[in-house]
Specification:
Strand content: 15-25%
Distance between the termini: 166 Å
CATH class of the largest domain: Mainly Beta
Radius of gyration: 72 Å
Helix content: 10-25%
Family: Belongs to the 5'-AMP-activated protein kinase beta subunit family.
Number of helices: 6
Order of helices and strands: EEHEEEEEEEEHHHHHEE
Structural class: alpha+beta
Pfam family, one: DUF4332
Protein name: DUF4332 domain-containing protein
Oligomer: single chain
InterPro entries: AMPK1_CBM, CRP1_MDG1_kinase, DUF4332, Ig-like_fold, Ig_E-set
Organism: Neolewinella aurantiaca
Length: 237
């Protein structure tokens, strides 16, 4: 009988050979010889006597071995429960023991424990906002008085040939109060003022009013008088 167990720390097998008394008899010198000790009686593995069988232990690396039991260095015996047999080449069989390679099983790396999530910190109570200081309303600076532009002194538009008191009033109402205003007014504007005043004023002819007003505004009295001598009702004679 053969028992075997793999010792991981040594990467070897512990093999126990056992042969019963009934096979070889009691009080005999029994040794295990094989390929692991060169089939030498002197190097043979001695078997100790037990209660009912002889036993011997040996450590062997994985591989295939042949062996037999030699009793008193005279009689060969095979193991009745050997895993296998093969021819010895001498009209007998040897027992075969096969010790298989044992792949080293690597233990899976221990999973690192996931870091514990830190308990969410309690939010600090919101600080009460300091009461806003009441902004002291700045007193509005006193509004600057707008400089009142001095209106240009009204000219006597009646000095213009063809303009009487009523037409002078119409022109003043239309914003034409000085000789300069009249000199800058377009013929259309003057015609519109007269037309808006009614049919009686449509007969007035303002064609020379601008020329007269420009001379009056420039203070060219002599030239104005000379021009007016050539006019009648504002129209050249």
């Amino acid at each position: 009988m053969i028992k075997k167990s793999f010792v991981k720390s040594k990467k070897q097998y512990k093999v126990t050979f056992e042969v019963p008394f009934e096979q070889v008899g009691a009080n005999r010198d029994v040794r295990v010889l094989g390929t692991f000790n060169g089939w030498s009686w002197d190097k043979g593995l001695p078997m100790s006597k037990g209660k009912s069988a002889y036993k011997a232990d040996i450590s062997l690396v994985p591989g295939e071995y042949q062996f037999r039991y030699l009793v008193d260095n005279q009689e060969w015996k095979n193991d009745w429960d050997a895993p296998g047999y093969t021819s010895s080449g001498y009209a007998s069989d040897n027992c075969v023991l096969t010790l298989e390679e044992v792949a080293e099983v690597k233990k899976p790396a221990a999973k690192k424990a996931a870091p514990k999530k830190a308990a969410p910190k309690k939010a600090a109570p919101a600080k009460k906002a300091a009461p806003a200081k009441k902004a002291t309303a700045k007193k509005a600076a006193p509004a600057k008085k707008k400089a009142t532009s001095k209106k240009a002194a009204a000219d006597d538009l009646k000095r213009i040939e063809g303009i009487g008191p009523k037409i002078s009033g119409l022109l003043n109402d239309a914003g034409i109060v000085t000789f300069a205003d009249l000199g800058a007014a377009t013929p259309k504007k003057l015609a519109d003022v007269l037309t808006a005043a009614g049919a009686r004023f449509r007969l007035a002819n303002p064609s020379s009013w601008q020329q007269q007003a420009k001379l009056a505004a420039a203070g060219k009295t002599e030239e104005l008088k000379k021009l007016q001598d050539e006019l009648k009702g504002g129209v050249k004679k």
